[in-house]
Design brief:
227 residues, TIM Barrel, eight-stranded parallel barrel, 9 helices, globular
């Protein structure tokens, strides 16, 4: 099973320190784009930096901020520099500017129709939806869940996906988030979770391709879980 860690975009020096701390511990870094629609350094650019340091990066990509041409051009560029996976999301409404009409389903179709070979993942709640089915039918290569608190939460999703690779997100420290943020993530309540045991449980499942650790407490908390 692959292990990834979420690294939130930050200043150049802080991002380098974060990358340095995870080398040799995690298989890849996941880099979100403009969480909550707020401007942040581009994960596409930061992914090239990670790639240069020998760290596999999987950037998130907000399609609502791009035209079809801009989207294809950036995906082609990412593939040319060695980025092999990207997670496409519609994204939170931007705090600046006006969103475009591009959505994940149409974006995936554009990639497949134009022969861009980058693997494309999509975000999903733990419950199968018609929206997820449309993304899979369009050609999504893998799925990433929202944070879970038990392995039982993804049993139905695993059955729904069949053989499509599934990456599960866990979030130690989730109890520190505001209730409004939890609602946006589709989380109704917080359990007391032994995250080390949860990761072991997921590792025992042949149906889970990987786990992504995302913590409000930062990368140090994610590293601590693996010790």
């Amino acid at each position: 099973m692959e292990l990834g860690v979420e690294v939130v975009p930050s200043s150049y020096r802080k991002f380098l320190r974060s990358l340095s701390s995870v080398i040799g511990i995690f298989d890849f870094v996941s880099i979100p784009e403009c969480p909550f629609g707020k401007p942040m350094p581009s994960p596409l650019v930061l992914s090239t930096l990670a790639r240069g340091l020998g760290v596999e990066a999987v950037p998130n990509y907000r399609v609502m901020d791009r035209s079809e041409l801009g989207f294809l051009s950036e995906m082609m560029a990412l593939y040319e520099i060695g980025i092999r996976k990207v997670v496409i999301v519609r994204g939170d409404l931007p705090s600046i500017g006006v969103p475009t009409h591009l959505n994940p389903v149409d974006a995936i179709k554009l990639l497949k129709e134009n022969g861009v070979r980058i693997e494309v993942g999509v975000a999903s709640s733990v419950k199968p939806t018609e929206s997820l089915r449309a993304k899979i039918d369009a050609g999504a290569d893998f799925v990433v869940t929202q944070p879970i608190q038990s392995g039982e939460e993804v049993v139905e999703l695993i059955d729904f996906l069949g053989g499509i690779p599934l990456y599960v997100m866990v979030m130690p420290g989730i109890e520190e988030l505001d209730a409004s943020v939890l609602r946006e993530m589709g989380i109704a309540y917080i359990k007391g979770v032994d995250y080390k045991e949860l990761i072991r449980e997921l590792e025992r499942s042949s149906k889970v391709k990987g786990v992504i650790i995302s913590s409000p407490k930062g990368i140090s908390k994610a590293i601590e879980l693996l010790r």
